[in-house]
Inverse folding.
């Protein structure tokens, strides 16, 4: 008899076809999608008796994880991805109850009228390596956690300034308190200034290998930011180890030229170093000379694309380098 280790029901799945047993002693991974409540009613007894369960994905519109997963299950998880909306208190409690977590996604609920002050003693999680945080009061969140093992951090305030709040000093303090060595940082739809972005990059400059900045609520990619990321004969730029970089969306200051963006990418690619740039996706507006340099960089091996989000010109010969 086959022993299932992975259950992945999906929308419209006939639940009566799932195994009728009350427990799954060999189950290691569960993906739940819509209709979530039907799936939960069927599978919750099994989830509560799964000694090997390590990986859970909850999609759709699930309730709070604390009402779904028993403490014993949380304590054995290594991977948790959910689109359920957690409060900051619930998020901290889940981290506290899940000491083995290495990969976690939280879509947090931004409720400024109920957001508690930062915890006096931040929760310390020693194993969390990868974290995605959705819209919330990030200042309160980062005041509440210490993550020394963190390597990959993604922050997404979604597409509404009312759904999230950036916390600059709390973020800098979090990085300093955690002493983590971030290798990948992704910032989506954040509301930040050029000076604050440079301060963030300075804090993670020594270890960062991959940087994604996509969309935003202000035009914070200024000549100062582009210049700080560009190699020159006189000085080394921020994040000298970057191998992958994405900067796109309507976040470019009017004074940022296409030539400056291409020069920044080229200066990183043409380095005589094993840590040189290998992949780039950039937005902005480019003239004929810029496109020529883009073609040249592609021909000599740089995986370079120009995002269609910011593409305002026309160059029929270069549609192959535009991301659709």
């Amino acid at each position: 008899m086959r022993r299932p280790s992975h259950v992945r029901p999906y929308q419209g799945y006939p639940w009566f076809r799932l195994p009728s047993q009350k427990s799954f002693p060999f189950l290691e991974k569960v993906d739940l999608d819509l209709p979530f409540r039907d799936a939960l009613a069927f599978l919750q007894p099994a989830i509560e008796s799964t000694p090997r369960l390590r990986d859970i994905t909850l999609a759709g519109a699930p309730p709070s994880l604390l009402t779904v997963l028993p403490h014993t299950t949380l304590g054995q998880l290594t991977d948790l991805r959910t689109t359920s909306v957690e409060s900051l208190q619930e998020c901290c409690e889940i981290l506290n109850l899940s000491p083995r977590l290495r990969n976690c996604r939280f879509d947090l609920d931004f409720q400024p009228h109920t957001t508690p002050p930062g915890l006096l003693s931040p929760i310390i999680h020693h194993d969390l390596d990868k974290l995605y945080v959705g819209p919330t009061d990030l200042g309160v969140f980062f005041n509440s956690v210490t993550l020394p093992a963190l390597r990959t951090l993604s922050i997404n305030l979604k597409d509404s300034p009312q759904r999230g709040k950036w916390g600059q000093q709390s973020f800098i303090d979090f990085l300093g308190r955690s002493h983590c060595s971030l290798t990948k940082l992704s910032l989506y739809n954040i509301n930040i200034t050029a000076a604050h972005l440079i301060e963030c990059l300075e804090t993670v400059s020594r270890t960062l290998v991959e940087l994604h900045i996509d969309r935003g609520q202000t035009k914070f990619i200024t000549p100062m930011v582009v210049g700080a990321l560009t190699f020159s004969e006189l000085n080394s730029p921020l994040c000298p180890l970057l191998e992958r970089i994405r900067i796109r969306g309507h976040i470019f200051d009017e004074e940022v030229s296409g030539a400056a963006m291409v020069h920044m990418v080229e200066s990183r690619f043409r380095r005589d170093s094993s840590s040189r740039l290998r992949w780039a996706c950039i937005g902005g507006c480019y003239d004929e000379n810029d496109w020529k340099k883009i073609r040249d960089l592609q021909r000599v091996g740089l995986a370079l694309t120009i995002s269609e989000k910011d593409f305002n010109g026309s160059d029929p010969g270069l549609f192959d380098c535009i991301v659709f």
